[in-house]
Amino acid sequence: MIEISKAHKTIDYQQIETLANTIWREHYIPIVGKSQIDYMLEKYQTVAAINKQIATGFEYFLIRYDAIPVGYISIKQEENALFLSKIYVLSTYRGKKIGKAAILFIEEQAKIYRLKNIRLTVNINNTNSIKAYEKLGFKNVGPLVTDIGNGFVMDDYQMVKELF
């Protein structure tokens, strides 16, 4: 059974930090390299970094499968869209419809906020994720390069899903 619940305690943020450390190292080191992942995990996925993001309007959610934490989501309400900042699932739990359930949950959040679309960014070399997002109705609207400091950039595509 898939359960998605709002992260709102330090223990939740610690679980997210642990999940991020596992998922990001496994998935992204082959795409962008270890030094960039080390930097990004410290900048974006520590308990302290998550607390800062929440203070600026981000919301985090833990994804559990049969009561086991297996992934997480981060979203932020914007003026015209719900920004899907993060959606990650442990590789050993992929293929169990968790990603699809998470996207349906995110769509419901967008509707609650009365937003007509969801936007996200995805690394241009993350071909499997791009294909998965396209299968879920997201359209690639073009490249987006973001300087994240320390000599690193995020070389992404921006993708949008319109909600009807």
UniProtKB/TrEMBL annotation:
It holds the Pfam family Acetyltransf_1. Signal peptide: none annotated. Transmembrane segments: none annotated. It comes from the Bacteria. Residues 2-164 form the N-acetyltransferase domain. InterPro entries: Acyl_CoA_acyltransferase, GNAT_dom, N-term/lysine_N-AcTrnsfr. This is N-acetyltransferase domain-containing protein. It comes from Flaviramulus aquimarinus. The lineage of its organism: Bacteria, Pseudomonadati, Bacteroidota, Flavobacteriia, Flavobacteriales.
